[in-house]
């Protein structure tokens, strides 16, 4: 667990990190929830910071976590960076996709295999469908081609 002073140090480090990028952007560091510090970034050049399928965004998060760990010696702190609400929109899309495919699978009784996706996206799909009793989900394959299979419940 970290305190208010730790949060202020984290906030300062994150703001300095983004200042060094030379991009024109606004950074908002939100107070932590469950050991996760949320960082909202707004910019006119989101593609560069997001990258293909969010890979650059994922890399920025990992780099920030390493910087915080090395500089502040804090363990168990998670960083969640979102650029121009990319992640928020992606999660909404994944939830809708999961529901739609699950409805199709329940109706046709034929399994469907989704496109490969990173672990956090697969987790969104699994969690979205966890309460359904008419279908089941599992992940198959090896990274980076790991994907979710949605199957009718036996």
Based on the model shown, name its key terms.
154 residues; 2 domains; 3-stranded antiparallel β-sheet; 3-stranded mixed β-sheet; alpha+beta; Ribosomal Protein S8, Chain: A, domain 1; single chain; GMP Synthetase, Chain A, domain 3
How would you explain this protein's 3D organization?
The chain is an alpha+beta fold and 154 residues long. It folds into two domains: 81 residues, K homology (KH) domain (GMP Synthetase, Chain A, domain 3), CATH 3.30.300.20; 64 residues, Ribosomal Protein S8, Chain: A, domain 1. Helix content is 47%, strand content 24%. The protein is built from five helices and six strands, in the order αββααβαβαββ. It has a three-stranded mixed beta sheet with strand order 1-2-3. The protein has a three-stranded antiparallel beta sheet with strand order 4-6-5. Strand 1 and strand 2 form a beta hairpin. Helix 1 packs across helix 3 and helix 4 crosses helix 5.
In summary, what is this structure?
This protein is of the alpha+beta class and 154 residues long. It is built from 5 helices and 6 strands. The protein has helices at residues 4-19, 46-50, 55-72, 86-108, 119-129, and strands spanning 25-33, 36-43, 78-83, 112-113, 135-140, 147-152.
Mean pLDDT: 92
Number of helices: 5
The fold-level CATH name of the largest domain is GMP Synthetase, Chain A, domain 3
Number of strands: 6
Percent strand: 15-25%
For the largest beta sheet, what order do the strands appear in spatially?
1-2-3
Number of domains: 2
Query: How would the global form be characterised?
Result: elongated
List the secondary-structure elements in sequence, H or E: HEEHHEHEHEE
Rg from Cα: 18 Å
**Could you estimate the helical fraction of the residues in percent?**
40-55%
The multimeric state of the shown protein is single chain
CATH superfamily caption of the largest domain: K homology (KH) domain
Largest sheet features: 3 strands, mixed
Secondary structure class reads alpha+beta
- CATH architecture classification name of the largest domain: 2-Layer Sandwich
What is the highest CATH level, the class of the largest domain? Answer: Alpha Beta
Low-confidence parts, pLDDT < 50 over ≥5 residues?
A: none
């Amino acid at each position: 667990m970290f305190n208010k002073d730790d949060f202020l140090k984290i906030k300062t480090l994150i703001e300095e990190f983004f200042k060094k990028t030379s991009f024109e952007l606004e950074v908002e560091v939100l107070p932590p929830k469950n050991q996760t510090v949320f960082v909202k970034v707004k910019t006119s050049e989101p593609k560069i910071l997001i990258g293909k399928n969010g890979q650059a965004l994922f890399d920025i998060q990992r780099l920030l976590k390493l910087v915080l760990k090395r500089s502040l010696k804090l363990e168990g702190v998670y960083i969640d960076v979102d650029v121009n609400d990319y992640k928020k929109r992606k999660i909404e899309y994944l939830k809708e996709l999961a529901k739609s495919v699950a409805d199709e699978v329940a109706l046709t009784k034929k399994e469907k295999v989704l496109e490969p996706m990173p672990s956090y996206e697969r987790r969104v799909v699994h969690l979205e469908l966890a309460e359904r009793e008419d279908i089941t989900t599992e992940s198959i394959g090896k990274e980076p081609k790991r994907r979710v299979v949605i199957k009718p419940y036996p």
